[in-house]
Amino acid sequence: MATVAGVPLGAWLGQLSGRRGPFWALAALSAGAAVVIGRYIPADERREAPSVRAEFAALRDVRVWPTLSSMTLLMGGVLATYTCISPLLTERAGIPAGAVPVLLTGYGLGSLLGTTVGGRLGDRRPLATLITAATMTTLVLLLLTSLSPSPVAAIVLVTLMGMTGFAPTPVLGALALRFSGSAPTLFSGLSGSAPNVGIAIGSWTAGLALTSPLGQAGPSLVGKAAAVLTLVPLTALALMRATRSETSPPQPLAAADQSIGCGTQDIG
After folding, report:
1. Do 101 and 224 sit in the same domain of this protein?
2. Total domain count for the chain?
3. Per residue in 238-255, pLDDT tens?
4. Distance between alpha carbon 130 and the CA centroid of its chain, in Å?
């Protein structure tokens, strides 16, 4: 809902009320959500608190850091491009500003499709799915840099960027929980924080690229560089045979946490 409807709606509201309008609207909605959550969400049942030492000890697993690095780099690269997509669509592709919110819906639908397909494929071949998605994302961003002056090509490539960029997310999230060992709570937090660190750094870097001589093509170049770098930790995971179990047959990644992914039981 955030990518399919929320972002286009926010873009439309920003065009009507200025860039501060969506932030005020989100502040009001968040305050209302906090009241509803506090009133209706039941408290967790009492359970023994996990040991802080045991939680941090799980960080010694060498598979953890390539997984978190992949999350940071890939999502940072895709969102670096997406954050500055409006100038590319309006100034480089010549698309009217009023049509941008509608076109952003295509990106949201692409991300929804990518998450669904990536999760299902990743349940059988997680590393192959991750490496393929990262490679395809690099190719899409490369084409976006060169073909964005064409409105049709820009629209198609933005949709494909959402699909290829989000395909790895359920796989990486499930792998992080698989490697969590005695620290599922810590790793749930880390798997949510790592992409946002990448998004913050990527968006900041994309803003610098946008104001550089690269202009509207700068953010997609930043995204392409991050997508290429994602192949480094993914290759490390492949070389470590990270998804192979030495003591038991491989299990579906959904077994790590059936609540992770895109709402299916056989998620990557």
Report:
1. yes
2. 2
3. 888 766 654 333 444 544
4. 13
